[in-house]
Structure formats: C-alpha cells, structure tokens
C-alpha cells in the first residue's frame, strides 16, 4: 500500500503527515507536487493542512484548481481513498468530493489546542476499529473549521452514518461547551456516501509520536492500515 | 555602463534637508568628506537610513562590544551574520535571533507585528537554516484602556496570521502590562532554526561578473524610511508616517523559505541576504562591504508595484518578502528553475564589480541610464564608516529614591486576607495564563513541540527532519525580562533577566548555550535613559559571563518614548537557547500525584521589593529590585541540574512573578491537583508567599525518593532547601486554611485575560 501526500504552495503539514506515516506508522509514502498530473500509483491520497495559496480567498478555493486535483478527483470517483486534514478538508469540500463548507470559527479567531473527539460509527475505514465510548485527544489548529451544511444534507449525513467524529469533552460528552468552533452538531469529520473520501479538521498526525506525549492520533491513522493491509 | 556624472535630477540638498532626514550636521560634513563632493538627494537618503540607529547601532555599539561574545560553540559571532550560530554537535548548528517591531506595531499593530515575525524568520532562513520554532515577547499598557485592547488584539492576530500560515510553531513567549507602555508597546519576535554546519549561507558578495538577483515580492512604496522612523520618538505626528509601516504576505514568505533553502543546497549561491530595514541599499551595501567588492545595479530592472518610483524610493523601500542573491556566473538557469518551480519572480538587477584603487568596493546605482548614486559600501555599514558615539549618561534621581523603600511601612498580609491576595494575583493579567493569546498561535505545526503535553518552564522543541528522523537532541528556548526590576535597578534587573532565562532552561533539563538580546529603551540622547542602557548592558554582560552564555546578536530599539508618557521601562529582553542531550531528562513543571512532597530549593528571603503583590495589590510603585545574588543563582542551577540528572525530582518550576504561591498554583493546576503547605515564622507571610526574591525553585519529590533527595541536596550539594508540604487531590491550603479551591483558582487563572479582552 502506498500513500501520497499532496504538496500545494503554502501547505505546511505535508512534512508532518509524511513523517507520521513513514516513521510512526512505518508506511511507504511519497509527496505529490501540485503541478503534477500523476498519482504515481498511490492507493491513499492525503491532502494535508496548511494555508494553500495563502488562503487569501476562501480556504481551499484556489487549490481545487491545481493540476493534481483532476487526478485526485478521478481517483476518488474510481473509489480510491482520499483524506483531507484541516486545509485538506477545506479543499475536498471546495472540490465537491464532500458536502458542506467550513466557515470561520464562531469566535472569529484562530484556535490551536488539544480537543477531544468521539467516533460516531464503525461503518467507515477511518473509524471501524475505534472505541465509540472513548474520547480521543487530538489537536486542532484552524481559523475556518466550523462545519456547516443545509438541513437536508445534514439529515442525510446523519441517516447514512457519514458523520465520523464529533467534538466532545474529556469525559466523552458531546456538548455545546465542548464545541471549539461552532460546528453544526459538533461535527469534526465526515465521509462521502461511497465512504472512500474523508475529511476532518483535527490533526491526527500531530498526535502520533510518543516523543510528543500523545499517540491518540496514531490510533486513528492506524485504522486505515487495518483494512488496507 | 561606465560611471559618468552622478545626478538624480534634484537640486543638491542642504544641511536643513539632512536634518529632516535625521542626519546630524556633523554627519552631513562626514558624508561630504567620504564622497569628496556634496551628496545628491538619493545619496543623502542612502546615508540617512544606513546611518540611522536602526541599521548602524551608532549610539549602542561601543557598549554592545563589551558583552561576552565567544564560546567553544560559537560558529558566527555577534554582528558577523544575520543571526547567531551555535554548534550543537553532529554537524548541526542552531541559528537564532530576536528582533523588535515596536514602532510599526504602535501605529498599525496587525501589520507591524506580522512583518516583525516575517523579518526575524528571514534572518534565520537566509543563513540556510530551516526555522523550527518561534517565541515572542510583548509589552502593552494598561489593559483596561480601549487602545491597549486594540493593540493587543491587533498584535496577537498579526503574529498568529503570519506565523500560522508560514507554518513554524510559536512555542512560547511572555506578555506583560504596565502603564509605561501605554503609547509605546513592545513587540519582540524570536526565531530559531537548524542548519547543517557545512551548508551555512553567508551574507556576502564577491567574484567579478557574478549576477545579482532580487527575488520575491515586487518593490513598492511601503516602508520607505522605516528605519529612520524607528529611530525617533513616537509623537502625535507619527500617524502621518503610516506609509512607513510595511505590509506582510506570509504565503510569499513560505515560498521564499522553500526556494531559498533549495537554491542554497545547490552550492551555487555566493551570498544571500533578506531585505528588511533599509531594503535594497542595506543588502547591497552590507553584502558588498563584507565581500570587499562593488556592485553595479540597474534600478530599472527591479520589479516595482507602481510606475514612476524615484530611485531613492526603490533603494529604501522596505517592501517585505524580498531577498538579494549573488550567484555564480553561469549557474543562472539552475537558480531560475528553482524560483520558477515555486512561482517566484526573480530578476537580475546587476552584477558584482571589482573594488577600486581607493576603496573596497563601490555601489553604482543607475536609473533611466543615468548614474544616480555612487557610494562606497564600506562607509555605509556598521563596523565600516558608520558613526559610533559615546553618549553622555547620568544616574537618574529615582534610582536612589527607590532604594529608600522600607518594607516595615507595608503591613504584612493577614490570614483572612490570603484569599483576596491569591485571587488578585491569579487573575492579574501579568500572572494569569496567557491562553487567550497563545491559543491563537499554531504551537504544534512541525510536530516538534515537546512541551504541549509536557509543560515546562522553557519550551522544548525536537529536531526532526528527513535526514534525522530519530534525532534525540532537543533545543529548549525562552524569552525573559521583568522590566519592573530593570527599571528599579538596571544592573541587577538585567542580571535577573539573564538568570531567569537560564533558570527556565535549567528547570526544563537543558544546558544553557547562548543568548540573543533585544534592548528596548527610551531616547539615547536623554542621559538618564542612556544610564539605564549602560547599566543594563553591564549587568547582562556579567550574568552572561557567569552562565557561559555569550551574546550572539540581537537588536537595539531606542526611542521607545513619547512626548506625554516619557520612556518605557528599560526592557532588555533575553532570548536564550539550551540543549537537551537526552530527551529523558526533560523536566516538567506540573505536580504529578497526590502525596508527593513539595520542597523549596534556594533560600527564602524577607523580601517583597518590586513584586507584583507590592506593586499592584499594595500599590507601592517605588522599591528596589528583588533580592538577588549572581553566585547563589549559579550554584542553584548546578544543584537543579544534578537533581534532574539523577532523577530524584518529579517536577521543577522556578519561583518568579507572583512568588511562591503562584509557583505552587501553576504546578498544581495542570493536573487539577492541590497542595497543603506551611509558611515559616522567621519570615513575613507576604514575603514568604508572594515575594519575588530570586534564586528559588519549587520541586516535587516522590515520597520514596525523599531520602536520596535530601542526601544529594543536603550532604552533597549543600544547597539550602525546605520541605513546604505535600501535593493534595484538591484545594490550595496554607497553614491549614483553604485559600482557594483548585477549580476556582483554575477558572481565574485560565480565563481572566480572555474576559478582560472580550
């Protein structure tokens, strides 16, 4: 199995994601340059965090037009795995691989801190083996992470178990107080209908190394391997 | 193009014009002497910025030279390169520096702070080092004033937006409020990077015929005379200088970072320097002077943002995110291809020329085919022809007055008053958590911050890249300065600033290595202000010598003074880095478990001088610096190192602002624990709990380690220590009395600053 991490101009979590996959999870991983037209045989494509093209326009609005994105979209349509983390989540939404948008945080400020997540379903590659009673501690770092969509789409997301993660407190309660950015129904991560495209605002790659004192993110990333291997 | 007649089309300026540009009459005479003729307006502008305080350090350099600048680990000494360079072993070096952006931030806090972050990071990566972490040191006025809130919000957002997008974590810093900063906030930004020793790039230029490139943003009219502006007092006319504030583009900076490191890796770069203060003229002159060659530059080739810019505007523009690069002739295509890859605009604007018979290199600037300026590079720069002054200084009257302070005139704190004092201190913006600030900074990008989940007195960052995936060593870093102490006694206060930085590193398990300083003072032409500067430099030098932490460079910011409020507190911010050889020796500040024993290491003192308690709770503004002895401080650090190395303590936290009580609270709160301690009847209760006497560290010890701990500290190290009490499950208890519940304390500590800024 081969991972590909796309590098857009302004991506800044590309190295972190590569490092986590390669050194913490022991996987084969390559970087994919945004100007390229070839996924080089990658099975699982990750769009990393950062500020692609500076995010001066709506986050992700320019990156979706990068040449590599044509390949990523085709890959997803063929059923290939694609995951967007943070800025990557914003990009996959802009590219219409996932429904909804990520608005400015409700307090209009960038927020970087450890938050807690609760897996909502085992009907997805990313959450299949996670403990649904456990609060996973993973960092967030974003100014535009407030997930929003229309009522019909929201109903569909809930009915079809497309909501993968919700923000919760350390005890696992999904509450308003535990919602760091004002996301609709505390949504932190979702997948598409065919369950091969994932998007999440928190950064599991930042919690994947014992040297940093938190490996909850590694537990999430490892889910991918359980099925693929 | 052969040099012809030099003219920029303007009438020759007079001494009056020179004065308006900040050039003194005697300096004007010296310029004429250097050129052998009258300067034209362009040339006078060149000298005015290059000889401004900001670029030339003319009023500070004679004292800066007295600071210790060398150790076995120094690869570049102060002033030699864009930033200091320290050998950390294994072929790696740490490049680090601090720089101020005070004056721009006073007028336009968002852009002022943002471009400060951009500038300091360029200083690091222009040496070929990839930045790994940033810190910042901020000072603001009374936090209840609407203007202060506007400044705080703007500065914090500016630092966050720039640093977050640039993608280097902001891992620590300090924020301090006092009315003396009402008009002049201080914004000091620090960055550190890692470079392979044999890949270090130089800020130099040589090799006749080598092309000179400008890369990055186009040159606009922003920031013209910014360097001169930073060398004046802030006045009500300062707002008219708004065009002197630059605008930042972190996306461009990120592209420049990646492209710069790639071109340096080719080995074809002769020299490279970022363009910060004084723009193209600063980079061309400093690089040429260093490499002892000249340059011919065609200003028509400089990409500009607007048409019809004057030559002097192009030369002095401080448009951000630009680099000047001298490349080996014949390798232009290799360099161009890299800039193309990153979609960066790169233009050849000139070439290196040989030095003349009477100089080490001249700069010839052409525009529209006309030679508009012809100046010798050496005479423009610090260490070359730039002036150096010995300024007059005089002890201010207040210094002796502060020493008259008698603590017997202040009532000791009564038992029923403890809760009120505790609440006051824990919610005070100088002591309360700066969470509201630092959560707006990305502190975790780069997956290198080892302190996120293991809090310690200094931030600890691992070195992690493709070549060194399992590298063990870490760099600890901190910025410190209690300017209230420095104001009370600049000599002692500056010693304390260095000591606190070293103490923070020591309590993190690091060996202190080196210092960068940011000397923020008032107007150097005021003898009492200059006395503060001289005393602070002397104190800093003595302490840096003691801790064997040479000063590798930094920044001087004078004129932090307003016509209404006078000078700010003298604020010599110390940025210090340390090395953690073994990550298992990282020490943390939080109490670990109920039942652990709490000790104070270092002597208690009957001292409340300059404490936050005395200053803001008792309202006594005039007192000397807290009790301090440099030798005792040094000895304490060696003892703490032993305790950590031998694994006999569970936590270490230095006693600083707010005294012992605040240190106890800060150690208890991270894990939601409490403490129960007793005070000592030989001391005033307020001095014991809230005094800020230096050279003390709070540690916790597992009960089973108590014997080893006491044997080591008492019998072997002979270090004074006292058992204070124990870690408890909940509540802050002093002499059997519950002062606060942990939850109440945590709410005050965590949320007070946010409520104030709301």
UniProtKB/TrEMBL annotation, chain A:
PROSITE patterns, alphabetized: GATASE_TYPE_1
Record-level GO cellular component terms: cytoplasm
Active site per database record: 86 (nucleophile), 203, 205
Main location per the UniProt record: cytoplasm
GO molecular function: ATP binding; glutaminase activity; phosphoribosylformylglycinamidine synthase activity
A Pfam family hit: GATase_5
Domain of life assignment: Bacteria
GO BP field: 'de novo' IMP biosynthetic process
Pathway entry: Purine metabolism; IMP biosynthesis via de novo pathway; 5-amino-1-(5-phospho-D-ribosyl)imidazole from N(2)-formyl-N(1)-(5-phospho-D-ribosyl)glycinamide: step 1/2
Keyword terms, alphabetized: ATP-binding, Cytoplasm, Glutamine amidotransferase, Hydrolase, Ligase, Nucleotide-binding, Purine biosynthesis
Subcellular location: Cytoplasm
Catalytic activity, EC: 6.3.5.3, 3.5.1.2
Catalysis: reaction(s): N(2)-formyl-N(1)-(5-phospho-beta-D-ribosyl)glycinamide + L-glutamine + ATP + H2O = 2-formamido-N(1)-(5-O-phospho-beta-D-ribosyl)acetamidine + L-glutamate + ADP + phosphate + H(+); L-glutamine + H2O = L-glutamate + NH4(+)
Gene3D superfamilies named among the record's database cross-references: 3.40.50.880
Record SUPFAM superfamilies: Class I glutamine amidotransferase-like
NCBIfam families named among the record's database cross-references: FGAM_synth_I (TIGR01737), PRK03619.1 (NF002957)
Subunit structure: Part of the FGAM synthase complex composed of 1 PurL, 1 PurQ and 2 PurS subunits.
Stated name of the protein: Phosphoribosylformylglycinamidine synthase subunit PurQ
Organism annotation: Rhabdobacter roseus
Origin organism lineage: Bacteria, Pseudomonadati, Bacteroidota, Cytophagia, Cytophagales
Encoding gene, per UniProt annotation: purQ
TrEMBL record, chain B:
Binding site for Mg(2+) 1: 99, 555
One cellular component (GO) term of this entry: cytoplasm
Positions annotated to bind ATP: 57, 97, 517, 554
Top EC class for this record: ligase
Source taxon at top rank: Bacteria
Reaction(s) catalysed by this chain's protein: N(2)-formyl-N(1)-(5-phospho-beta-D-ribosyl)glycinamide + L-glutamine + ATP + H2O = 2-formamido-N(1)-(5-O-phospho-beta-D-ribosyl)acetamidine + L-glutamate + ADP + phosphate + H(+)
Pathway(s) this gene product operates in, as recorded in its UniProt entry: Purine metabolism; IMP biosynthesis via de novo pathway; 5-amino-1-(5-phospho-D-ribosyl)imidazole from N(2)-formyl-N(1)-(5-phospho-D-ribosyl)glycinamide: step 1/2
Subcellular location: Cytoplasm
Domain Phosphoribosylformylglycinamidine synthase linker: 16-58
GO MF annotation terms: ATP binding; magnesium ion binding; phosphoribosylformylglycinamidine synthase activity
Stretches assigned to the PurM-like N-terminal domain: 81-195, 456-580
Residues given in the record as substrate binding sites: 100-103, 122, 246, 318-320, 557
CDD domains from the UniProt entry: PurL_repeat1, PurL_repeat2
EC number: 6.3.5.3
Coiled-coil positions: none
Keyword annotations from UniProtKB, A to Z: ATP-binding, Cytoplasm, Ligase, Magnesium, Metal-binding, Nucleotide-binding, Purine biosynthesis
Residue intervals of the PurM-like C-terminal domain: 208-355, 594-731
Subunit structure: Monomer. Part of the FGAM synthase complex composed of 1 PurL, 1 PurQ and 2 PurS subunits.
Assigned protein family: Belongs to the FGAMS family.
Function noted in UniProt: Part of the phosphoribosylformylglycinamidine synthase complex involved in the purines biosynthetic pathway. Catalyzes the ATP-dependent conversion of formylglycinamide ribonucleotide (FGAR) and glutamine to yield formylglycinamidine ribonucleotide (FGAM) and glutamate. The FGAM synthase complex is composed of three subunits. PurQ produces an ammonia molecule by converting glutamine to glutamate. PurL transfers the ammonia molecule to FGAR to form FGAM in an ATP-dependent manner.
Protein name per its UniProtKB record: Phosphoribosylformylglycinamidine synthase subunit PurL
């Amino acid at each position: 199995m081969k991972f590909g991490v796309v590098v857009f101009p302004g991506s800044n979590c590309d190295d972190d994601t590569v490092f986590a996959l390669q050194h913490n999870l022991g996987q084969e991983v390559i970087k994919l340059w945004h100007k390229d037209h070839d996924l080089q045989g990658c099975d699982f494509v990750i769009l990393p965090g950062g500020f692609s093209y500076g995010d001066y326009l709506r986050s992700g609005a320019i990156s979706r037009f990068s040449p590599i994105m044509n390949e990523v979209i085709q890959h997803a349509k063929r059923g290939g795995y694609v995951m967007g983390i943070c800025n990557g989540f914003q990009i996959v939404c802009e590219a219409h691989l996932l429904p909804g948008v990520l608005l400015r945080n409700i307090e209009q400020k960038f927020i970087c801190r450890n938050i807690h997540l609760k897996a909502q379903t085992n009907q997805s590659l990313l959450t299949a083996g996670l403990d649904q009673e456990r609060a996973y501690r993973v960092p967030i770092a974003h100014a535009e992470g407030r997930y929003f969509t229309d009522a019909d789409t929201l109903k569909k997301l809930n009915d079809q178990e497309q909501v993968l993660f919700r923000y919760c407190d350390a005890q696992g309660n999904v509450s308003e107080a535990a919602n760091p950015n004002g996301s609709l129904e505390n949504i932190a991560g979702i997948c598409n209908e065919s369950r091969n495209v994932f998007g999440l605002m928190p950064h599991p790659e930042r919690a994947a190394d014992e040297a940093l004192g938190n490996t909850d993110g590694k537990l999430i990333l490892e889910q991918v391997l359980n099925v693929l291997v | 193009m052969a040099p012809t007649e030099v003219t920029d089309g303007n009438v020759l300026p007079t001494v009056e014009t020179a004065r308006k540009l900040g050039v003194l009459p005697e300096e004007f005479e010296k310029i004429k002497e250097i050129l052998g003729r009258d300067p034209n307006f362009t040339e006078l502008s060149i000298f005015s910025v290059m000889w401004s305080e900001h670029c030339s350090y003319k009023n500070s350099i004679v004292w800066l030279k007295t600071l210790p600048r060398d150790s076995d680990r120094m690869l570049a000494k102060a002033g030699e390169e864009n930033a200091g360079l320290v050998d950390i072993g294994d072929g790696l070096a740490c490049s680090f520096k601090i720089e101020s952006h005070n004056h721009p931030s006073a007028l336009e806090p968002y852009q002022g702070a943002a471009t400060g972050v951009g500038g300091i990071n360029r200083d690091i990566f222009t040496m070929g080092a990839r930045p790994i972490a940033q810190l910042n040191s901020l000072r603001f006025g009374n936090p209840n004033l609407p203007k202060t809130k506007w400044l705080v919000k703007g500065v914090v957002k500016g630092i966050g937006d720039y640093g977050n997008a640039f993608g280097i974590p902001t891992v620590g810093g300090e924020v301090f409020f006092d009315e003396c900063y009402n008009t002049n906030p201080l914004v000091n930004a620090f960055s550190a990077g890692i470079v392979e020793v044999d890949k270090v790039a130089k800020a130099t230029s040589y090799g006749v015929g080598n092309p000179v490139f400008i890369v990055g943003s186009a040159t606009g009219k922003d920031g013209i005379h910014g360097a001169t502006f930073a060398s004046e007092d802030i006045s009500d006319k300062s707002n008219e200088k708004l065009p002197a504030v630059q605008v930042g583009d972190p996306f461009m900076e990120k592209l420049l970072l990646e492209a710069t490191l790639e071109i340096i890796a080719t080995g074809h770069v002769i020299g490279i320097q970022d363009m910060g203060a004084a723009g193209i003229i600063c980079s061309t002159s400093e690089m040429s002077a260093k490499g002892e060659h000249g340059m011919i530059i065609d200003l028509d080739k400089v990409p500009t943002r607007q048409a019809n810019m004057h030559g002097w505007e192009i030369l002095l523009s401080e448009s951000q995110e630009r680099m000047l690069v001298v490349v080996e002739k014949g390798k232009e295509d290799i360099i161009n291809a890299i800039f193309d890859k990153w979609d960066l605009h790169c233009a050849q604007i000139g070439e290196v020329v040989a030095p003349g018979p009477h100089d080490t290199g001249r700069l010839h600037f052409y525009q529209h085919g006309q030679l508009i300026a012809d100046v010798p590079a050496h005479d423009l720069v610090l260490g070359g022809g730039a002036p150096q002054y010995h300024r007059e200084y005089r002890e201010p009257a207040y210094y002796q007055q502060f020493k008259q302070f008698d603590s017997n005139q202040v009532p000791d704190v009564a038992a029923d008053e403890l809760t009120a004092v505790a609440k006051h201190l824990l919610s005070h913006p100088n002591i309360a958590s700066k969470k509201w600030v630092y959560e707006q900074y990305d502190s975790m990008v780069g997956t290198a911050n080892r302190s996120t989940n293991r809090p310690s007195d200094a931030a600890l960052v691992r070195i992690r890249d493709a070549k060194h995936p399992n590298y063990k060593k870490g760099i600890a870093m901190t910025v410190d300065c209690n300017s209230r102490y420095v104001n009370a006694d600049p000599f002692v206060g500056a010693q304390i600033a260095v000591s606190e930085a070293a103490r923070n590193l020591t309590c993190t398990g690091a060996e202190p290595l080196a210092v960068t300083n940011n000397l923020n003072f008032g107007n150097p032409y005021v003898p009492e202000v200059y006395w503060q500067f001289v005393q602070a430099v002397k104190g800093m030098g003595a302490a840096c010598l003691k801790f064997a932490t040479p000063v590798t460079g930094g920044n001087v910011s004078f004129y932090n003074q307003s016509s209404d409020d006078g000078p700010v507190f003298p604020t010599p911010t110390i940025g210090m880095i340390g090395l953690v050889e073994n990550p298992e020796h990282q020490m943390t500040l939080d109490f670990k478990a109920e039942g652990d024993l709490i000790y104070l290491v270092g002597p208690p003192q009957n001292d409340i001088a300059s404490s936050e308690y005395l200053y803001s709770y008792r309202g006594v503004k005039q007192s000397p610096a807290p009790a301090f002895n440099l030798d005792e401080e040094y000895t304490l650090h060696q003892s703490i190192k032993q305790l950590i190395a031998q694994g006999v303590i569970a936590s270490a936290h230095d006693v600083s602002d707010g005294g012992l009580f605040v240190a106890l609270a800060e150690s208890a709160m991270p894990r939601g624990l409490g403490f129960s301690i007793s005070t000592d009847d030989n001391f005033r209760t307020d001095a014991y709990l809230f005094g800020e006497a230096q050279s003390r560290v709070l540690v916790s010890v597992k009960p089973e380690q108590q014997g080893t701990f006491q044997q080591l500290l008492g019998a072997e190290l002979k270090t004074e220590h006292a058992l204070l009490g124990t870690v408890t499950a909940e509540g802050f208890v002093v002499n059997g009395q519950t002062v606060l519940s942990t939850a109440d304390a945590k709410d005050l500590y965590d949320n007070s600053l946010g409520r104030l800024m709301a």
